[in-house]
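Entry 12.
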Amino acid sequence: MIFSKTLIHWYSNNKRNLPWRETQEPYCIWLSEIILQQTQVKQGLPYYQAFVGKFPTVFDLAKADESDVLKLWQGLGYYSRARNLHASAKYVASELKGTFPDNYKDLLKLKGVGDYTASAIASICFNEVAAVVDGNVYRVLSRYFGVCTPINSTKGPKEFKALAQELIDKDNPAEFNQAIMEFGATQCKPKNPYCHICPLNNSCIAFNKNKIHELPVKIKSAKAKKKYFNFLVFVSEDGKTILEKREGKGIWQNLYQFPLIETKNELKIESFEKAVENHKLLNDMPFEYSLYNKELLVHKLSHQHLYTKFWIINTKQLPIEGVPVSKAQEFAVPILIGNFIEEFNF
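Predicted 3D structure (tokens):
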């Protein structure tokens, strides 16, 4: 089909030089695909290089402590990806003796691997005719074919998957999949796509009907929830602070943070003492406090916005066992906490 051949030809002349394109090793392809979920190449590249450098094989990754994996992941967000990455590495290393599944169906059994990732690995590593559908592919297909079905509707993913599967080059699935993703990332971009030099513009419905900025269609998601976080940054006279490990399910599961007070509204400095008067760590203990950031720090996640303040708690000694402030940077923490630690410098 002209569409497929045109994309592959474009890719051969325009593809970026990326390290995971120099190999068909399943471990490297899997690692790159997990890192690049919800992440742009320019942000994910240094993380890929760091992971390959520290964990050159799946056995190395499997043997690592989860805290080391989370620390190396710090700043990428969506930390469940890192936990799933580690869990799958242990499964492949122990149960599969280090050999990755060689087909789409079995790749789906790996934790954190869905349709897109399984299709990418199966096609790139094992030449299976399994079409990828990610944000870039949605954009290219919806614009070129004028598909108005919302990509986040119940019907959307199935419709686009079927279309991509129909279009994929059966003789060269790996090259086609990489071509259409690259085309969406660098040519058919979300904003300001290069339509006038596009090799597909003559037959692109969105271009010819002036609907480039209307496609793909996406149903508006629910408004992000507001949460107010107040972190208690203890600093004792002997140079220690308190970092707590977040337990249970959640966005920062198994990461470390300063003791947290969550409030329904912004906590003002004049109401701080009342808000913490019954706090388990401050009860009946002399302390001095100050507000580090008078303006709220807003940390935006996909489903919630965290409005954050850091309260410095100076004490003679800590109420519980702490950690030397000099070692605070060694802990796996959310980027919000990491940025504070780096800036505050204790």
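Annotation: The two ends are 62 Å apart (CA to CA). Residues 80-94 form the longest helix (15 residues).
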